[in-house]
Amino acid sequence: MTWLQTLPAWFRRAILRDRAARWNHQYASGRWERLKAPQEAARLDACATLLRRHVPGGRLLEIGCGEALLQQRLASGDFSRFVGVDISAVAIERARVITANDPRVTYLTADMRELELAEKFDAVIFTESIYYVPDPAAVLRRYARLLDPDGVFVVSIFQNKRGAEAWAQIHPVTTVVDRTTTTNAAGSWDCEVLRLR
Question: Which tens digits make up the pLDDT trace of 77-100?
């Protein structure tokens, strides 16, 4: 344990801006429970449909997976391997409980800016996570090394100012292969299949 980890979580969140502590607090306090609401199903199903269409039975890496909500929308035959990564240990522990009996599924606690993996994937997925970094294009370039030559990115982003800013950085370095938009009472989301140029 480092000296930083010995400090109270509230202090790390508020004063030191510890990202992991902030996300753990948000998951533990129920802030993200709304993502499990039935109205969210269409957004997750749209991403799952694009994965089935472009990488059927593929090896999938989801960055910012939270509590495994996307993985739960996939049927057993939709993937041969699924690795989910999230900065929140609270979310990852919940994801592991849900998928404990599937040896093809692994969940890891890590910051997307620091993750190192040796595996290759058919798709790297960012569902509502890529706009939490200041340079989404750099993140895609970083994760491109984990894609097989025919691999794709699947990116889902909420339609708001922050989302538009993320797409403005992503689109100049990618080619859109497929896309869909879903809408519910909370707003609209774009989900795109992308290849790095």
Answer: 999 999 999 999 999 999 999 888
